[in-house]
Specification:
single chain, 357 residues, alpha+beta, Helix Hairpins, D-amino Acid Aminotransferase, Chain A, domain 1, 2 domains, 5-stranded mixed beta sheet, 4-stranded antiparallel beta sheet, globular, binds nicotinamide-adenine-dinucleotide
């Protein structure tokens, strides 16, 4: 359990400090693609903040990081308002925390089926289709306002320009599709290996330049992990750079819609799939908590057999009417939870190689 000062003034002082620290890392990670601490370290700061707010609820003010989604939008892009807000997810870090969520939900809506899927470690993107035509791609931003990255999104091969309507699933007049843009582990390793090779070439060339008294060429920075590589590749002012990077997308949700009324999340996925959108083949609808636990354990053991990095499993109530009933807080839906796997030892040796720029 987290250490929470009993004394209110001490708690408030610690809260103020933590909030400032978290806000700084939130912007570095989401807005600048330049995190300075690991996700586990960030999550620990956030858990301490949440524990203080639980003990002293008056500290959970609107401007607390516990009430925010993502980060500010970067000035590199035009900002766009989403038709419907994008959220973050609440986390469970242990079977006990998962049970607590299940109990909260079942107290209100008993006997619901759970849709389990992988939590892809990339960045959230909102695609807008009007009459089946892709009109906009935007980052999540702060949930309300995102960055317009339409030209970048159009370079991703798995994102269709046009949806294919079928008899069963006609193309809707308007729909926002939510999903994760990611870089596969293989492409990430290749990108960094290419950069290392290029850096060797630059270093050799710099030897000659030095001898000739010329200005030295800068080395290319390496990406820390696939998530960072995906975000850095997608959020480029020049979409030809994005086009040169191997990015993919998996869709897992829908926002505002007209002419599309799925009754269940899983049924919605069937429509998305029929339209030609890249749905996941890993999701499962399960009726029991035991089933959910097995799913979590299975992918905990097999997380490296997946082509992309995952940092957990997302569990959603499948029935959309029930999702509506449960609703959301300012930060996250009450009808879903992310079960996060424990942090791993750093696996790539590339990550440890310091590059001077
Ligand atoms: P989150 O990553 O915990 O969960 C929400 C996000 O999960 C969604 O927005 C979506 O992008 C993603 N997601 C992946 N698969 C999904 C699926 N199947 N269904 C629904 N959503 C799915 O929350 P967040 O708000 O994006 O970011 C917070 C997290 O980011 C932190 O817990 C931490 O891990 C990391 N972070 C790290 C730093 C740092 O400095 N290292 C700073 C800020 C945030």
């Amino acid at each position: 359990a987290e250490q929470v000062p009993d004394d209110f003034d001490a708690a408030r002082e610690r809260h103020t400090k933590l909030a400032a620290e978290i806000d700084r890392h939130r912007q570095l990670y989401h807005r600048d693609d330049a995190p300075q601490i690991s996700d586990a370290e960030y999550d620990a700061l956030m858990r301490e903040l949440l524990a203080i707010e639980e003990a002293h609820p008056v500290l959970a003010t609107q401007d607390s990081p516990s009430q925010q989604v993502g980060g500010d939008v970067s000035e590199l892009f035009a900002s766009v308002r989403h038709a419907e807000r994008l959220y973050s997810l609440d986390n469970a870090f242990s079977p006990e925390e998962l049970t607590a969520w299940v109990e909260r939900v079942t107290a209100e809506v008993p006997g619901e089926a759970y849709l389990c899927e992988l939590k892809i470690d990339g960045l959230a993107v909102n695609l807008t289709y009007e009459n089946g035509v892709l009109v906009r791609g935007a980052t999540r931003g702060d949930g309300t306002t995102g960055e317009d990255i339409t030209p970048n999104v159009r370079t991703i091969a798995s994102i269709p320009e046009k949806l294919k309507g079928t008899k069963k699933y006609p193309v809707p007049e308007f729909v926002e599709i939510r999903g994760e843009v990611f870089m596969s582990t293989e492409s990430f390793e290749k990108l960094n290996a290419d950069r290392l090779a290029e850096n060797e070439r630059i270093t050799a060339a710099n030897e000659e330049r030095k001898a000739e008294g010329k200005r030295l060429q800068k080395l290319l920075p390496l990406y820390a992990n696939p998530r960072n590589a995906a975000a850095g590749s997608l959020r480029q002012k020049d979409p030809t750079i994005t086009a040169s990077r191997a990015l993919s997308m998996t869709v897992y949700g829908f926002g505002a819609r007209r002419g599309f009324e799925p009754t269940h999340q899983s049924q919605g996925y069937a429509a998305l799939k029929a339209w030609g959108l890249p749905t996941s083949s890993y999701f499962k609808v399960l009726d029991t908590v035991e089933g959910v636990t097995e799913y979590i354990e299975h992918y905990g053991e097999h997380r490296h057999d997946i082509e992309h990095e995952i940092d957990g499993v997302v569990i959603k109530i499948d029935d959309i009417a029930v999702q509506r009933r449960l609703g959301s807080t300012t930060r996250a839906p009450r009808w879903a939870i992310a079960y996060k796997y424990p942090p791993e030892e750093v696996t790539t040796t590339l990550r440890d190689i310091k590059v001077s720029v």
